[in-house]
Amino acid sequence: MRKLIDENGLRVDGRRVDELRPIKIEVGVLKNANGSASIELGKNKIIAAVYGPKEVHPKHMARPDRSLLRCRYHMSPFSTETRKSPAPSRREVEISKVIREALEPALILEDYPRTAIDVYIEVLQADGGSRVASITAASTALADAGINMRDLVTGCAVGKVDGQIVLDLNDIEDKEGEVDMPIAIMLNLNQITLFQLEGILTPEEFKKAFEMALEGCKKIYQIQREALIKKYFGSSEPIPVE
């Protein structure tokens, strides 16, 4: 096993243990979608598009009291080092379900009965953490589409590498590290919508990891807000949170 953190405390990409990768979010990148957003997190490049609310087909799937949220997460064949099949894999189907369940608590679906809201997520390039980056992009796209929301959903992952808790795992750390813990949260409501843990942490390590993930989410949340403000108000200056 190679060392992923050197004697100076630097990771393979030169970051400190509590540093995020460079992140860029843009809103309104697809003109034919009702709402859209792109995110670049490290080498991840992901686009999310929202269509709806719209009529449900087939009609028997319509819910009389709320909208039907449907999510599709897909990795392009060229998104990884080894070319993948364009057909949806079991992992993509699972992540689609995870993303839908992470987004649903933030949406006021009762305002759109007998309709469907479709969220399409396309991973153009993957570099670890695509699940939480996709949730962040999809939430921003839903806000761009004008869907009534309780709050934005922000995702971030932490993990354990070479015995140390680190923020925002890249692909190598994700594959060779000891722990991966993605979370998504509605920060204004202080509610977690996604929590997964692969690996083992002591109670002290878990507390440190969660606090680190929360700080990462706060930084990403500000970038989400600034991207939306830039599109609709022509400025990237953050508006203070009430």
Q: How would you sum up this structure, described in words?
A:
With about 240 residues, the chain is α+β, with helices and mostly antiparallel strands. It has one domain (about 25-230): Ribosomal Protein S5, domain 2 (2-Layer Sandwich), CATH 3.30.230. It is about 25% helix and about 30% strand. It contains 4 helices and 9 strands. It has helices at about 90-105, 130-145, 170-175, 205-235, and strands spanning about 25, 35-40, 45-55, 70-75, 115-125, 155-160, 165, 180-185, 190-195. The strands form 2 sheets. A 5-stranded mixed sheet has the order 1-2-3-5-4. The chain has a 4-stranded antiparallel sheet with strand order 7-6-8-9. Helix 1 (about 90-105) crosses helix 2 (about 130-145) and helix 2 packs parallel to helix 4. The longest helix is centred in the last third of the chain and has 31 residues, at about 205-235. It starts with about 20 loop residues before the first strand and ends in a 9-residue tail after the last helix.
